[in-house]
Amino acid sequence: MSKAAPSPSARRAASHCDALLSQREPIADLGPEFERFGARLCGALHSCVAELAEDAGVRIASLGSQAIEGAQLAAQCPPLAAISRHRFGVAGHVLALAVDGRAILEQLDRTFGGPGQIGEELPPALPHTARLLSRRFERKVIAAVAGELAGLEFKAEDDASPADLLAPFAPEAELTALTLAVTGSDGREWRLVLALETAALASLLPKRASARRAPVSRRKRGIDEAPFCDLPLAASARLVDMQMPLHRVAAIQPGTVLPIMVARNVPLQIGEAVIARGTVGEVDDQVALQITQTFTGQITPGKDSQ
What are the DSSP E strand ranges found in the chain? Predict the structure, then answer.
């Protein structure tokens, strides 16, 4: 006699041990690290932003990161924005970049000989020429982003549909958005926004996302050990400072004798720092400097520097 298999609804639901589940490592909060990345990115972006704005005095500052949902991203971006999507990582995560469309239109106006003043009324969308200019700027921004992330590779989705660009993420997606404020010499401000799913931060910041390791105690190397012991330092000893009137300088000829008074305490310098003082002497037919005082203030007779 065959026994009928129990229906799927009659099967007992799987249960898991609470003790094992509690041992799972919580997802690290990478928001602060993303903000530190944003602060570094401000310096890396200065050259390409200054080129776009034609303003060498432009300033870039990070306004920090914010946890939002995909439906809230549009409110974080400027009213008219050039939005692009860039894939990164093995899983193909999306990094969205939003550039203020006003800055693009102002640069486009300057390109065609205008003053870069477009008024307050903006078009509903960027024209094709402005979009081409924006793509060139976006490539430079993403290159700077990759440079600050140890060369992480990004691939632009140039074939993304307009609908995908208007809504790069699902409305319910949990995102982290980073906003950078660009202020020109005239005080006018525009913004850049970088956004990605919060779960993808571990792929964007792989070095910081790795598990914390126990601290390793390392012995501090001395200056008489590698790699410091062979480090070359250029030292100079200033024997004399002379002041001569201009008429005497003009009269200098071959054979002219200039009496000099060598200082009793000759400073020994590395760069602008005086590390020791000494007196001038002679050792083996060579001019030598006998160190009489070190930078610690100790008197150390008998040490020579040739």
Answer: 59-69, 81-88, 93-100, 154-156, 174-183, 189-197, 235-237, 266-270, 273-283, 286-294, 303-305
For 216, residues 6+ apart whose C-beta sits below 8 A from its C-beta are none
Task: Say how far apart CA 140 and CA 219 lie, in whole Å.
Answer: 43
Its pTM stands at: 0.59
Distance CA 92, CA 16 (A): 31
Q: Which of 162, 189, 172 is nearest to 59 (CA)?
A: 189
The encoded tokens of residue 190 equal: 């525009």
pLDDT digits (tens, 9 = 90+) for 187-234: 989 999 999 999 999 989 865 444 455 555 566 667 677 766 777 888
Q: Are the C-beta atoms of residues 182 and 190 closer than 8 Å to each other?
A: yes
What's at 226, amino acid-wise?
A
237, 273, 277 from 289: Cα distances, Å: 8, 17, 9
The 10s digit of each residue's pLDDT in 251-260 is 889 988 888 7
Q: Which residues pair with 46 in a beta bridge?
A: none
Q: Which residue from 211, 201, 210, 169 is spatially nearest to 37, judged by alpha carbons?
A: 201
* Upstream peptide bond of 227 is cis (omega within 30 degrees of 0): yes
